[in-house]
Backbone:
């Protein structure tokens, strides 16, 4: 499902290498945690997996597609139809209801507003927020906001879900609820890659990889 082959990513002049020859394989239906300290290259790797950024060198294959041969429009289509994103900061529109925030996740699929709202309601019910459909982000808790973000990311049933520190801003109980939800999504077949700085959390996942200074460490190609 995801393949990185000797991927590097450099920024600036003189160049600073955020990734230094990373090779990674993630099979369909896996739940992979990527752990490492701030500045280790985790987010850069996730952005490349999500096609939000292109590697400086190396090959990237996502859902069977060779990313380096795709146009920007093709990459946008890949993200819209195959990849969902969940971020630490939620990125919800504060002036819109939970229902509208989730429906917006289908804007680039060409569905009618009625169909977007129908799917958004079903997605919110799936994450346990059927009673919060018309609430705005400032009317619900942090854990509920993250569940809205997950509902938005998965409303189109993407094959891949990329989560960047999804529990980082949550208390322990809310974080546990979000992790339970991610495990449930994985059990239905969604391939999940989650980055975290929490080694204990990463160790609880079916598989984890450690990143330091732009490299996968421990001498293991994962």
Residues:
């Amino acid at each position: 499902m995801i393949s990185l082959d000797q991927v590097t990513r450099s920024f600036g002049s003189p160049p600073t290498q955020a990734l230094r020859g990373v090779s990674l394989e993630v099979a369909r239906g896996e739940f992979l945690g990527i752990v490492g300290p701030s500045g280790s290259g985790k987010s850069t790797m996730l952005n490349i997996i999500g096609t939000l950024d292109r590697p400086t060198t190396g090959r990237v294959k996502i859902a069977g597609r060779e990313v380096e041969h795709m146009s920007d429009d093709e990459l946008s289509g890949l993200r819209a139809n195959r990849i969902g994103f969940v971020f630490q900061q939620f990125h919800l529109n504060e002036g819109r209801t939970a229902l509208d925030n989730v429906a917006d996740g289908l804007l680039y699929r060409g569905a009618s507003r009625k169909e977007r709202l129908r799917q958004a309601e079903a997605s919110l019910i799936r994450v346990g927020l059927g009673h919060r459909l018309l609430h705005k982000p400032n009317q619900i808790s942090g854990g509920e906001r993250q569940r809205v973000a997950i509902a938005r990311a998965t409303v189109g049933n993407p094959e891949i879900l990329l989560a960047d520190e999804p529990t980082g801003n949550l208390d322990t109980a809310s974080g546990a609820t979000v992790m339970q939800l991610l495990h449930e999504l994985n059990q239905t077949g969604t391939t999940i890659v989650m980055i975290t700085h929490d080694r204990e959390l990463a160790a609880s996942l079916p598989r984890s990889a450690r990143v330091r200074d732009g490299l996968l460490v421990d001498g293991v190609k994962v």
Q: What stands out?
A: The chain has a mean pLDDT of 92. The first helix runs from residue 42 to 49.
